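Hey, sorry to bother you again with one of my protein questions. A protein chain has come my way and I'm curious about its shape. I'm sending you its amino acid sequence along with the backbone structure tokens. I owe you a coffee for this, so here goes:
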Amino acid sequence: MEEYQEIIDYKRFIYFKGQATLKYAADLNRYRSEKSGISHFSHRQYYDVEIKNIRQISENIFKKWPILFELRNIKGEILGHYKKETYSLKTDILYIDKALVPDHVQNEGQELHGDFVNVPVVFKMNRPEKTTICIKGIATGNEKLREDGLYKEITTGEFNLDKITCATEWFKDGEEPVPCEEGKPTGNKENKNKCYRLEYYKADCSTYWGEWICECVQDEWTENEKELDGWIWREYFNSDCSTIWKQYKDIEVKKGCLSFIPFILAILWAALCCYWAVKYGSFMPILFGIGIPLFLAGFGYAINFLGRFSRGIGRLFKWIMNLLTFLFILLLLNGLISFFSSSHWGGGSVPADTSWEDQKVIPEDQGNESNVIDTDDGRKIQRDKITVKLKWKDIRNNRYEGQYSIYKDEIASSSSNIQNLKTQNLSNFRSVYAKIFEEDKNYLGGLYSMLDSIRVNKRQDKLQFANAIVSMVQSIEYVLILEEDCNDPSAMANNQYRQMILSGIKCDGQAPFGIKTPSQFLSDLKGDCDSRTLLLYTIFKHYNYDVAIINSDYYAHSMLGLNVQGANGVFKALNGRRYYFWETTSKGFGIGQLPNETGVLNYWKIELN
């Protein structure tokens, strides 16, 4: 009956779980290393991957796997041990659910090699397969003459018990069934509590489920129950077949079981402290969460032991124990307050967007426009200026546009000022920022007029106006600003600079301190992180905001800090004021968001406020 069958090709996905052992190679991140004084390496490649204890899992388990990241840069074959056999796996992605902790590390100059052992992974494989289906409603050509007329043999669309031949039925001539009649029940039924629904055919032989039909009695138990708050709760029907949970009876708990609760809580607390220590690269959670409690427990045991021999010594040590416990509680509370106000609760990581294709900033140099100014002595002076047009959106997709002008002689004065600062051997960036701000704050009149018009027309409060200002700067293309020439060998020797330039990020060199002044930035729209924060600092100071520049030598980054009503998220505190972080180098960041990769607050300091 092959003419009544159809062979279908398809790919079958199979899902697996196992423990991977692999090696990795990493390159020295020269820029971060020079900034922090600590060697930092970036993973480049993974190799010698071997997966043991492989077992097959369901697609549902695979989809629920909490993926932390995907391991892709794999060199060579992947060996898998499955059911006492070794295979070369044809997969190039391993899904990992936790941070990788090296088991062995070997430093070779500017390269680092190491091993990861028994890393839980999941992966999927596919293989081509074929399946055979029977076609429904096909006449076989066989006929039988019975007493009441002629009968014909028709296929049912199902297999016989041998799973090879297609099943058939006999129908009287002229009474053959329609293969798939619209609205005809298939015979399948789904039950749920006191409700059911039927499955029906469509004209194309696909199927659909009908409406639920419920037959329930009010206050009847659905046979579902759960334990909560020391009670057993049961689920009951309402008159409309919706359900409600009601308390049923107390849960009798044996006192002996309660003795395990502190032990279980201690294990969970220790595991949580270890997780925080690994995730945030700090020994403090282990010290305060595990080390000090163990010390106090041991000290308490020693007190009890000494108290057996001398009541006076026991009393003295108990007094010391109470004092240490009080100090520990204060330290723990302080640590928890710092932790829960830190970056761990400030929002997810938003990757930096260096793309310019979708930006809405349209800089237009209007040429050497003239502006004639009357002096106090009656003379007329012609000043050249540059006009720039901007269009942008804020994080809530509010649209803005405007234009401002800046005089070329003021740009020249600003450039001369920063060149002079270079010769003064200033000791820190705070002094540099402050002197640039004092020089440039009076040169931005054209920009202030544009922003005044936006604030009045949009009727914005302080936080809304701040969003409009910061999103304007975020929408401007990121350009790397270097103190040396962009092609200088010393610049290209910096691995981070080299990677940024090779990835297509534009570069502008020969800038003192690696900074563009606000006037320079507004004239050519070229600036990196601290050029942007310095411009925004100048703008917000003009509008009487409580603003700060927050820098990190460890992360080699600069961010804006703003103390404004209505803000929330991650902040850096100074003198009782909260300066909320604000990323300025790309679109999509709101106030109070600090990416996890730059989220350790101890590495940030307020440079200027």
User: Anything to note?
Assistant: DSSP finds 14 helices and 28 strands in the chain.
